[in-house]
Fold this protein.
Amino acid sequence: MEQQPNSCWIIGVLDSGLDSLTPAARGVMEEADLVLGDPRFLQLFTPLFGPRTECRSFAGHLKELPDWITTACRQGRRVVVLATGDPLLSGVAGHLRHKLAAGYCRILPTLSTPQLAFARLGLPWTGARIVSVHARDGGEWHAAPGMAHPLYSLYQALPGADLLAVLTSPANSPARIARMVMHLGWEEQFQMAVAECLATPQERIHPELRPAQVANSLFADPNVVIVQRNQEVSSAPLPVLGLADGCFLPEGSAASLITKREVRVIALANLVLHSTRIVWDLGAGSGSVGLEAARLLPQGWVCAVEKDPGRCRQIEQVRARLCINNYQLLNSLAPQGLEAWPDPDSVFIGGSDGGLPELIRLAVRRLRPHGRLVITLVTLENLSRTLDTLREIGWNWRLNQIQISHSQPILSMHRLVPASPVWMVTAGQSATELP
């Protein structure tokens, strides 16, 4: 293949060495003046390099790599960058395409390691998600790691994934991933497989492992982890909106302090949820509004507060069962502890423990522009306090009375039994934005 002047080739390779190369890739490498890559790849392909070929490791020098390539190309040198598998699959090519001028790079991929892992396991992988945790050592997953943690992308991907390939690193190993799954309470929902040293004589495939089996095991590097939802324990798919009240109650517990389904759906609509919205749930009770809101916010976040430790434990059990990961719960009496929360786009107040006016003022003060406040009430006194406070603040509001009746059998017929009425106040700065 003819090498164009002033260009860089990014070639996908595997640990099988020369066997992973196409004739075209082999020809390009034989003509290279500068070869950049991981030390193990530079050693594997040394037989192809001429006596004047310079080999340089970019391990630990990823920031300098674009400058190295640009300088060499301007000098008329033929540059090759070695990358694992498909260089555009969480690889160096994705990094370089934003750092180099247009036309500098040409790419020759080979099979990716997830492709090989799925092939070894005999798993069709159409629709599978691929996540890379090939990053710095951020330590073990913990209760509130934040978005900067190297495992956060995996944390986001797991709840909605039936099949997932994870590109690991020595620090973010299969064992650490398994411990994260167990920490989140999702052990029964997933099984794992580990593919070690693919395309080498040391290759080993470990299928159908429970997270507990992986959590304290050592696997040879490099490796790929396949995470698959355990269909034997998976229940029927949940609806997008309007989860049954029973979803938010631990087994054997009675309905208590739960915003019922019909009221909850209206509240969620009035909160005006968008994918990236930040929502506060003050006085979470059973957690039903905040937890369901979190399911509707794939890139958003819900901050909830509940004073009762027992209810907090129940909420965490339900959160784990529903695999909700964009939700944090504070065991406190609002407004204590809320100063550290990010400013919200929407605030839901379901309980106040006598501090309703204070919570309304806090919400109005912290809400972002075009923010929305929704309050559910069951007593005339709290309704009066709410409307008086909103008038004092100067916010606009709309009031709805929600009266739901449910059918119940009576002899061979049915009658309607009314539930207690609920008032819902929706407030915002602009009257035109209110429902």
In short: The longest strand covers residues 190-196.
